[in-house]
Every structure is written in structure tokens, then in C-alpha cells.
Amino acid sequence: MSVDNSSKTILIAEDSSVILNLTRKILELQKYKIVLAKNGGEVIKQIESNPINCVLMDINIPVKDGMECTREIRRHADPRISQLPIIAITGNANNYSMDQFREAGVTDYLPKPLDFDALVRVVKQYVG
């Protein structure tokens, strides 16, 4: 039974165009719709103007970092937004402990370099 993910939209918050394009291709192959935010200033705007199902949040994005964006999402008045699954993507997970991720409201995290099988598995776990 093939799953139709075409009604599911993933927001990718990532400033590296290489990682962004790879991640987008991988998820588009899984039939997800993709919305992009190149910096932390665009994240909330994109979430408020699109029906997002999951956020892939690079921790080191400009303007507002991923931790700050995550906290902002968690404080949002709309429960559809404040309860979104947020998957942190970080090249330096060692800078943050899992407790700090949890405290910020991160649902799960993936280390860089990204393992694309793990990416697909984690997204499916939260988006269905």
C-alpha cells in the first residue's frame, strides 16, 4: 500500500543551499510538499502562511537561530502551530544537550552530515 504524502508539507529551515536542495529532493521523492525558509526570520512567516505538518530546523541559521525559532513556535497562540513536530538538524549537536533541545521544544534531532535514510524515517515517524 503506497502512502500518499502529497497533502503533507514539510518546512525546511536551512541556509546552506546544498543541504537544502538535497533534503528537498529526498523529501519530494517521498511525495512531500516542501516549503523553504533560508533564515530564522522566515520560519514563522512560512508556518503562518502555509499548512505545515513538520519542521526540519537547522540549528545554525542566520537572523534567529533554530533554538530561538523553536521556542517561538512553541509559544505560538495557534495550537496547530505550537504543536508541530520540530526536527532539529545540527552539525554540532555536542553544543547542545538533549535536555536543552527538549527545553526549547525540539521533538527529535538528526546530526549532520545528514543520513538521508534516517531523515526519511524520522519525517515519516512524525508526519505519517
From TrEMBL:
CDD domains: REC_hyHK_CKI1_RcsC-like (cd17546). It comes from the Bacteria. Keywords: Phosphoprotein, Two-component regulatory system. InterPro entries: CheY-like_superfamily, Sig_transdc_resp-reg_receiver. The keyword Kinase does not apply. The modification 4-aspartylphosphate is found at D58. Transmembrane segments: none annotated. Residues 9-127 form the Response regulatory domain. Pfam families: Response_reg. SMART domains: REC (SM00448). This is Response regulatory domain-containing protein.
